[in-house]
């Protein structure tokens, strides 16, 4: 709330001048239960913090007002919101008819409330039957509707209700790119759809560092440690109540057998909820020493509990949506969330028909820690939603218009609050510099940061985190949505675990380093890590000469020699992640010593370090400088001096470069005879100096069947950063179940 107050002070004058209009938008927010309030509360705080633009009316109905479900309207009062109207709309019962009657009762009571409030717009969340009554009433009374979380896909009757509300709503705030596309496919007006992310993520992504041990002790006991308890939240499936009750019994049996402290929350108000409570009492859950059964936990405390749990189990949307922000393992039971996008922390047990199957899932998931996922939000949803609300023109016709097929191919729209570019944070760890960049889906480097690479592990990791945090903050200002972090580094890398196994000698204190965990925890983003040679190949596959090519090889010619192999469109890592160490192909049994300890490697002949070594030898013998060259006394001899000398006619320098080009060419011939690519891409600062020599060696030494291979120089200005970005842009953790 403080944040939004400060924000409003900064922008008030500017926006008022732009609008030229003192009319305040009267917003009615109607909340039905504890779950939708967790999504609506951040928006309500934002609206309340800008009284110069908005008037807020709060209507409370549904299970908020039922004692059996914790009288959760009290948490709205504790948040210092004035509740304008309380509507008792739940008809008690245990079957589908009770839900229908509850909708009917709400429809009877709501018109009088809306007539008194006369809101300009009503904000409705989600897919509950109460929300359908709200949307129906507002639509029939010619009140504009803003629907939160439309376009998503899940199981049960909620899916149908959600899409029905979409057709009634005038404006849509969705959480994922897929949901946005679903809304467009449902013929909703493109200009009235905002891809903002989930409002609850604005609170979730700043929650984990708060004091949590007292909360765990309060709800689970003082002897419980973090990552050593389970949170269970399961609701009835209204389209198959009998089966969902049976599944709940099996879940409780499995939890009893698993023998870990467990917090069990009561189910939602739905047909079948009373039967589920009876099952809990029949099994003695409320009095079992390992269980704590509660009707309600305040949202601030609930997110701390799931953030530090060993596992969450059940069929709540919270498990597949919000919990991913913490990387907490989740077991999703049954079909209630079928179709939801999930992170890799979710294990689905669709047919949860035996206790053993659920118990096995608990054994697999409990205590793990996954990368944090931002599928459903990046922590900036509320500012986008407030901006969207301010852009609503009440003079526009109220009647909805539908955009029937064909749907536009371009998913970006022509209004600034939708034009956010899917992007990646790319990190390049070189021997000298550490670089971080925001890279768009099209390969454009939007913003780049460069610092000297520190010499120690602690300083290096701290600098990476600092630069990434700065870049992620800047991404909002340049209208980019960060999907994840990709890291390119020298040495041997295990990309599955995000660990640098062995480093090159150019980067000190950089072996057995877990890069994924600290960066993912700090940024709440998925993180991918790979070798710089592999990243260069990925960059070519997505943005360069390798685009659309099934089999090709990339060779980096720089300080060292590296590369990557793409076979049948896939990058080859090898059984111990040592594939494509192309710089260490041996081309001479008695050649110069390589940094790897061997002799005669390509890198010992053709790398920048090798050329610098030969240049120093010539310089020490006064054989390097020729007419037209000069060096300052303190200047360090480099490979560039050797190349310059060769261009000016130094025959010894020419001979060294010719030998280096021949060694590289022989290595390429060996590659052609081994993996038979259709394209060889030379990348790096020395590529232009070697390309003709490589082609010449191929024409003389290669088998006739591979002589026709294309050898080209990369046209990418920054393959390391682009390759790191492609790790994210090609391999995001988004999954459809």
TrEMBL record:
Residues forming the catalytic site: 532
Record's keyword terms, sorted: Allosteric enzyme, ATP-binding, Cytoplasm, Hydrolase, Kinase, Metal-binding, Multifunctional enzyme, Nucleotide-binding, Phosphoprotein, Transferase, Zinc
Oligomer and partners: Homodimer. Homotetramer. Homohexamer. The hexameric form exhibits both enzyme activities, whereas the dimeric form only catalyzes the phosphorylation of N-acyl-D-mannosamine.
Catalytic activity: UDP-N-acetyl-alpha-D-glucosamine + H2O = aldehydo-N-acetyl-D-mannosamine + UDP + H(+); an N-acyl-D-mannosamine + ATP = an N-acyl-D-mannosamine 6-phosphate + ADP + H(+)
Name of a matching Pfam family: ROK
CDD domains: ASKHA_NBD_ROK_GNE, GTB_UDP-GlcNAc_2-Epimerase
GO annotation, biological process: UDP-N-acetylglucosamine metabolic process
UniProt keyword annotation of NADP present: no
Protein name, per record: Bifunctional UDP-N-acetylglucosamine 2-epimerase/N-acetylmannosamine kinase
Family: In the C-terminal section; belongs to the ROK (NagC/XylR) family. In the N-terminal section; belongs to the UDP-N-acetylglucosamine 2-epimerase family.
Cellular component terms (Gene Ontology): cytosol
């Amino acid at each position: 709330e403080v944040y939004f107050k400060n924000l409003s002070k900064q922008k008030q004058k500017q926006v008022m001048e732009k609008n030229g209009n003192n009319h305040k938008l009267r917003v009615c927010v109607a909340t039905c239960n504890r779950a939708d309030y967790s999504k609506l509360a951040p928006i309500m705080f934002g609206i309340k913090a800008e009284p110069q633009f908005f008037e807020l009316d709060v209507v409370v109905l549904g299970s908020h007002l039922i004692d059996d479900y914790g009288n959760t309207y009290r948490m709205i009062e504790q948040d210092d919101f004035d509740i304008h109207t309380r509507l008792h709309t739940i008809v008690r019962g245990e079957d589908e008819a009770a839900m229908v009657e509850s909708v009917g009762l709400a429809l009877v009571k709501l018109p009088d409330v809306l007539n008194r409030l006369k809101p300009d717009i009503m904000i409705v969340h989600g897919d509950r039957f109460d929300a359908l009554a709200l949307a129906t009433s507002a639509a029939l009374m010619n009140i504009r509707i803003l629907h939160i979380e439309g376009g998503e896909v899940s199981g049960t009757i909620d899916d149908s209700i959600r899409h029905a509300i979409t057709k009634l709503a005038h404006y849509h705030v969705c959480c994922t790119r897929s949901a946005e596309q679903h809304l467009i496919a449902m013929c909703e007006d493109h200009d009235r759809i905002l891809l903002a992310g989930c409002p609850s993520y604005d609170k979730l992504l700043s929650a984990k560092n708060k004091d949590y041990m007292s909360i765990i002790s309060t709800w689970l006991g003082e002897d419980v440690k973090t990552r050593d308890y389970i949170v269970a939240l399961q609701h009835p499936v209204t389209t198959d109540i009998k089966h969902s009750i049976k599944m709940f019994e099996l879940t409780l049996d499995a939890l009893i057998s698993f023998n870990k402290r467990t917090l069990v929350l009561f189910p939602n108000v739905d047909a079948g909820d009373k039967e589920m409570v009876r099952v809990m009492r029949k099994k003695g859950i409320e009095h079992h020493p390992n269980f704590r059964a509660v009707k309600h936990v305040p949202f601030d405390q609930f997110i701390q509990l799931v953030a530090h749990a060993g596992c969450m189990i059940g069929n709540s949307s919270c498990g597949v949506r919000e919990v991913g922000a913490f990387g907490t393992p989740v077991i999703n039971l049954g079909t209630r969330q079928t179709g939801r996008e999930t992170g890799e922390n979710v294990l689905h047990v669709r047919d949860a028909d035996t206790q053993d199957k659920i118990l096995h899932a608990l054994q697999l998931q409990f205590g793990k820690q996954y990368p944090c996922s931002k599928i459903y939000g990046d922590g900036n949803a509320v500012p986008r939603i407030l901006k969207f609300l301010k852009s609503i023109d009440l003079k526009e016709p109220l009647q909805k218009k539908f955009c029937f097929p064909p749907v536009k191919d371009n998913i970006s729209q022509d209004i600034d609050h939708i034009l956010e570019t899917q992007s990646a944070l790319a990190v390049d760890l070189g021997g000298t510099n550490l670089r971080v960049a925001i890279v768009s889906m099209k390969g454009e480097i939007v913003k780049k940061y460069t610092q000297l690479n520190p010499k120690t592990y602690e300083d290096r990791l701290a600098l990476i985190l600092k630069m990434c945090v700065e870049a992620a903050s800047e991404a909002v200002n340049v209208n980019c949505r960060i999907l994840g972090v990709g890291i390119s580094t020298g040495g041997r890398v295990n990309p599955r675990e995000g660990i640098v196994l062995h480093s090159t000698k150019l980067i000190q204190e950089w072996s057995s380093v877990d890069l994924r965990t600290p960066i993912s925890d700090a940024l709440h983003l998925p993180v991918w890590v790979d070798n710089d040679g592999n990243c260069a190949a990925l960059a070519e596959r997505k943005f360069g000469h390798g685009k659309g090519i099934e089999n090709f090889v990339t060779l980096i010619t720089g300080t060292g020699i590296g590369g990557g192999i793409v076979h049948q469109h896939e990058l080859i890592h090898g059984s111990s992640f040592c594939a494509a160490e192309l710089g260490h192909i041996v081309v001479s049994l008695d050649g110069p010593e390589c940094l790897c300890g061997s002799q005669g490697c390509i890198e010992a002949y053709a790398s920048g370090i090798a050329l610098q070594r030969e240049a120093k030898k010539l310089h020490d013998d006064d054989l390097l400088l020729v007419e037209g060259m000069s060096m300052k006394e303190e200047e360090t001899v480099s490979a560039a001096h050797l190349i310059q000398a060769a261009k000016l006619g130094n025959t010894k320098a020419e001979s060294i470069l010719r030998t280096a080009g021949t060694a590289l060419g022989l290595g390429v011939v060996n590659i052609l005879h081994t993996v038979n690519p259709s394209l060889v891409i030379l990348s790096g600062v020395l590529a232009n100096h070697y390309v003709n020599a490589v082609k010449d060696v191929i024409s003389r030494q290669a088998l006739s069947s591979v002589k026709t291979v294309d050898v080209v120089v990369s046209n990418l200005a920054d393959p390391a950063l682009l390759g790191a970005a492609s790790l994210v842009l090609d391999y995001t953790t988004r999954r459809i179940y």
